[in-house]
Amino acid sequence: MSSGKTRQSNRQGGVVVSGGTGALGGAVVARFLADGAPVTVPWIVKAEAEALGRAHPEAVAAGRLRLVEADVAEESGAAAVAEAAGDAEVLVNGVGGFAGGDPVWETPLEVWDRMYRINLRSAVALSRALLPGMLARGRGAVVNVASQAAAGRPAGLAAYAASKAGIVLLTETLQKEVGERGVRIVAVAPATIDTPTNRAAMPDADPAGWTSPEAIARVIFWLSGDDADAVRGAVVDV
Questions:
Q1: Residue 110 main-chain phi, psi, to 5 deg
Q2: pLDDT at 5
Q3: Can you tell me the distance from the alpha carbon of 233 to that of 2, in angstroms, rounded to the nearest whole number?
Q4: Angle, helix 46-55 to helix 23-34, in steps of 10 degrees
Q5: CATH of the domain at 171
Q6: Which of 173, 32, 41 is nearest to 94 (CA)?
Q7: How far apart are CA 216 and CA 190, in angstroms?
């Protein structure tokens, strides 16, 4: 539960965290709230949004945590989030999903569509909605969540890896497009994240080498801030 104790943030605007009701996203939300930043989180599953609100009651009461029902893979949902967030300075594209285990010829096209929609289209839609405001203000950062599977290309995970490779391409291309206009585009590429879902899905695996959501959240927080101003278009393995 949030302690309610915050310190002054050096960020001038708010933060949008897609996927903020999940394990990694929740850790990212908590890190930004601890810094005193207002955070907007889109949600689809009501129970997950309610759980996030209960974890940070002081922030909800103060209006620093805004929960917006929105499908951010749709233009209308992304626009609703941008409107609720106002002058957002940071966008964390953290919503994501995983599917795999079958070779390409046995992976249904519906799985490819779902991985694209969740992992890549959502990031594109939110970037389209929020980047114009950042560019107009000449300040901002977008941190995309990719995966080391994008580079490793493991067998059986083609749909997932391809969607995350799209995140890498999006990151690098967007940085070239924003150039020197005061906005940075970066990405993190986690390996296996130590979450209850992953532990349940891989009961025989050794989680000792997995990375905690909190550790990844600290990297995302740093990448979004002024101390990482020289990091542009990079994909950082975590």
A1: -65, -35
A2: 42
A3: 33
A4: 30
A5: 3.40.50.720
A6: 41
A7: 7
CB 227 within 8 A of CB 40: no
Catalytic residue among 56, 68, 149, 160: 160
Give a yes or no: residue 79 inside a domain.
Answer: yes
166, two tokens: 């799209």
18-73 confidence digits (pLDDT tens): 999 999 999 999 999 999 999 999 999 999 999 999 999 999 999 999 999 999 99
Considering the domain boundaries, does residue 201 fall inside one? yes
Rg value, the chain, Cα: 17
Who contacts 226 (Cβ-Cβ below 8 Å, separation ≥6)? 10
Residue 9 is assigned to a structural domain of this protein: no
The number of distinct structural domains making up the chain is 1
- Residues 134/176, Cβ–Cβ less than 8 Å: no
Determine whether 116 is an active site residue.
Answer: no
Q: What is the pTM of this model?
A: 0.92
Task: Kindly provide the residue ranges of all beta strands, DSSP E only, lying in the chain, ordered along the sequence.
Answer: 14-18, 39-43, 65-69, 88-93, 140-145, 183-189, 235-237
* Pair 189, 148: CB distance under 8 Å: yes
Nearest by Cα to 232 from 164, 189, 177: 177
Instruction: Show the domain range for 31.
Output: 14-237
